[in-house]
Amino acid sequence: MKPNAHDELINGSLLHQSVTERLDTAEANPVALDNELLELIFDLYDDDRDFPYQKIRKFSIGEILTYLQATHRYYLTKKLPEIEQSLLHIFSRYGKTHELLAELCFFFNDYKNDLIEHVKMEEREFFPYIKRLVKAVQGDMPKEEIAELLATASIAQFTDHHDSIEDELKEVSIIIKRYSEYETTPLPYRVFLNQVELFELELRKHAIIEDHVLVPMAEELEKKLRGQ
Ligand SMILES: [Fe+2]
Ligand SMILES: [Fe+2]
């Protein structure tokens, strides 16, 4: 087994587990996803190099949005609170003796707010715009309303501002790693670091689906409507 194969295996199965978990988060109303789509998402989580995105694009935008929204809910109600809990746990144990923790807490708090903002913008503006494009293409919208819709927003506008929120999270690992050069890292830090790195990977996959699946599909609709 390669040195990292074990980690990859663990991270891989943890990521699969997290994909399934997010669909069950809304306990009263679990999200049902097409099995084939779920398999493709697992494949993408395993390896996104040369991924055949067109295989996912054949599903409806509605399904893709359902998955992405379940993911947003999972981040805000489960992942972020979990990571924050770990950080508080470390802070209560090492806060007095480890100066790094204050920096880390400040940084994480800022990061959390940025991520919440990012998700809220998508839920309030980006996704509703796409849903209206779908409605327009289906013929459920008067011509004047379509013209207004296309005049007030565009996919390009959103993609210009779709920042890679996962890159910022890298800073957390950098802070911890920088610190580890001087002292041995206490175990809870390492657990926290692992959690953060896994989440970073998770966000990266999420952004890939938004950028390489959702955006091209929505652009296709826009093109159709503008050509009418
Ligand atoms: Fe998102
Ligand atoms: Fe995003």
Helices and strands in order:
Layout: H1 5-24, H2 35-46, H3 54-57, H4 61-94, H5 100-137, H6 143-152, H7 155-160, H8 165-180, H9 187-227
Helix pairs in contact: 1-2, 1-4, 4-5, 4-9, 5-8, 5-9, 8-9
Bound molecules: fe (ii) ion (2 copies).
One fe (ii) ion binds at residues 68, 72, 119, 122, 206, 210.
GO cellular component, one term: cytoplasm
Protein name: Hemerythrin
Subcellular location: Cytoplasm
Task: Walk me through what this model shows.
The model has no long low-confidence stretch (mean pLDDT 86). Helix 1 (5-24) crosses helix 4 (61-94), helix 4 (61-94) packs antiparallel against helix 5 and helix 8 packs antiparallel against helix 9 (187-227). The radius of gyration is 20 Å and the shape is elongated. It is built from 9 helices and no strands. It is mainly α and 228 residues long. The structure holds fe (ii) ion (FE2) (2 copies). Residues 68, 72, 119, 122, 206, 210 line the site of one fe (ii) ion. One fe (ii) ion is lined by residues 68, 72, 119, 122, 206, 210.
